């Protein structure tokens, strides 16, 4: 059993205000055994996982920490055209990134800060610029006139701009007032969690959750 199961098992019970004694009785086990499950001391069987998922009204995948969505919704990818189906994997990756960016700009719209939106836009633009320029210049036969910035400096300049944009964004989000523009009030920051994101962005949230999961899996391998 993974480390997420004990944590989520305990969280669900406490969220619903159910005592450990009551939950154990409802689930047909002793309180001592439930305590061991919640502390990760003992592992349970599949039948207990299914019973517990039904008891708390969540999916088994959520209970095991496999998805941040309580009902275990699958990744939704919008309909594709014929050309997309020839390259299914790149298309899914593209949709994951595109849908996730929709949510980022949706949150920026709520915060309603031109300065913050500008900084995040610069950061994302630089990332795309770097990726495209790397692909473009990989073939020496491609004409160099498309870019004005010296190739030897380009990546360092855009990486530096990305770091600066993130620093300015953090400053704005912490409530500091920039040289130009207004500071962001704390009460302007939306409260976010997997449930609210799923409700507000039902078509895009699964992509964002997949992006987070994929990125953090990459972190573990490096």
Could you outline the blueprint of secondary structure elements for this entry?
Elements: H1 4-15, H2 20-27, H3 31-39, H4 46-56, H5 60-63, H6 82-85, H7 88-111, H8 114-137, H9 151-173, H10 194-200, H11 205-221
Describe the structure.
The protein is mainly alpha-helical and 222 residues long. It folds into two domains: 4-63, lambda repressor-like DNA-binding domains (434 Repressor (Amino-terminal Domain)); 84-120 and 159-221, no CATH class. 64% of the residues lie in helices and 0% in strands. It is built from eleven helices and no strands. It has helices spanning 4-15, 20-27, 31-39, 46-56, 60-63, 82-85, 88-111, 114-137, 151-173, 194-200, 205-221. α2 packs across α3. The protein is elongated and about 75 Å long. The protein starts with a helix and ends with a helix. Residues 74-88 have low confidence and may be disordered.
Low-confidence stretches: 74-88
N- and C-termini, Cα separation: 24 Å
Output mean pLDDT.
84
- The total strand number stands at 0
Secondary-structure element sequence? HHHHHHHHHHH
Shape: elongated
- Given the structure, what is the number of helices? 11
**What is the CA-based Rg, rounded?**
23 Å
Question: Largest sheet, described in full?
Answer: none
Strand percent estimate: under 5%
Helix and strand composition category: mainly alpha
Number of domains: 2
Proportion in helices: 55-70%
Jot down its keywords.
single chain; 222 residues; mainly alpha; 434 Repressor (Amino-terminal Domain); 2 domains; 11 helices; 64% helix; elongated
């Amino acid at each position: 059993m993974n480390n997420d199961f004990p944590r989520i098992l305990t969280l669900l019970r406490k969220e619903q205000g159910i005592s450990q004694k009551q939950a154990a009785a409802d689930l047909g086990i002793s309180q001592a055994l439930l305590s061991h499950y919640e502390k990760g001391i003992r592992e349970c069987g599949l039948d207990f996982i299914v019973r517990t998922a039904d008891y708390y009204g969540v999916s088994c995948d959520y209970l095991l920490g496999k998805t941040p969505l309580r009902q275990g919704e699958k990744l939704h990818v919008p309909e594709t055209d014929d050309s997309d189906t020839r390259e299914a994997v790149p298309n899914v990756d593209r949709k994951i990134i595109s849908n996730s960016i929709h949510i980022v700009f949706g949150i920026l719209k709520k915060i309603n800060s031109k300065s913050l939106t500008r900084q995040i836009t610069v950061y994302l633009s630089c990332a795309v610029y770097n990726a495209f320029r790397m692909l473009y210049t990989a073939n020496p036969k491609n004409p160099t006139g498309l870019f004005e910035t010296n190739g030897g400096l380009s990546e360092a300049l855009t990486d530096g701009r990305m770091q600066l944009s993130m620093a300015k964004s953090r400053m704005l989000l912490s409530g500091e007032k920039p040289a130009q523009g207004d500071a962001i009030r704390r009460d302007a920051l939306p409260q976010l969690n997997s449930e609210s994101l799923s409700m507000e962005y039902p078509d895009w949230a699964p992509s964002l959750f997949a992006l987070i999961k994929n990125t953090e899996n990459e972190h573990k391998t490096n």
